[in-house]
């Protein structure tokens, strides 16, 4: 199944181009991850990780059915269980160990909440696989159809590196201009910076006292290199 998806993505990309295509309104119809990857490639960033995360809460009565659906999703499913004083985790992944793109489900069943549980799906790539964001989006479309509902929350981010010390102010201004971002919050220290903003380019947003937020950008100076992490609507990675 995954090989078929990869072949279909390659055919589509060859026909339409890897980079996002504009719509009649001037905005791209591509997913956030595809657009963010195109920006990172244009800026010659060394991409360390691409990530898409889906999260949704379900009724406790759906637990057995959900676990079965996740098991059936994988060709060679493997599951491990972790139990703490607060919750039980069921972690599912494919038994193939050599995949360049890795999918994982975590079913979190809290002991203090008897009416609901949470499903977290992540798909990650080292960023070097050809057409990685497009392939990842195909996986996401499949899992949305099989496991999640319209209430699922979508997160994506890119973790990358820039060789040398970056002028993060100028770089952020380029990022801001590219995606038409209105900055609503920023924090800068000697070797670290974080900025949050909003763009009408992507629909999903989080409401804050300062306004709607659906994009974050962070840098950290590590001496001879700078890590650059950006995503939507919030970063789910350490940076």
Characterization of this structure:
- There is one protein chain.
- With 239 residues, this protein is an alpha+beta fold.
- It folds into two domains: 2-7 and 31-41 and 46-157, YwmB-like (TBP-like); 164-232, YwmB-like (Dihydrodipicolinate Reductase, domain 2), CATH 3.30.360.
- The protein has helices at residues 2-16, 32-42, 63-73, 132-146, 168-179, and strands at residues 46-59, 77-83, 87-94, 101-110, 116-125, 153-163, 182-188, 192-198, 206-208, 211-213, 215-221, 225-232.
- A ten-stranded antiparallel sheet has the order 2-3-4-5-1-6-12-11-8-7, covered by helices on one side. A two-stranded antiparallel ribbon has the order 9-10.
Please specify the SSE layout and strand pairing:
Layout: H1 2-16, H2 32-42, E1 46-59, H3 63-73, E2 77-83, E3 87-94, E4 101-110, E5 116-125, H4 132-146, E6 153-163, H5 168-179, E7 182-188, E8 192-198, E9 206-208, E10 211-213, E11 215-221, E12 225-232
Antiparallel strand pairs: 1-5, 1-6, 2-3, 3-4, 4-5, 6-12, 7-8, 8-11, 9-10, 11-12
Which terms would index this structure?
ten-stranded antiparallel beta sheet; 27% helix; Dihydrodipicolinate Reductase, domain 2; alpha+beta; single chain; TBP-like; 239 residues; 12 strands
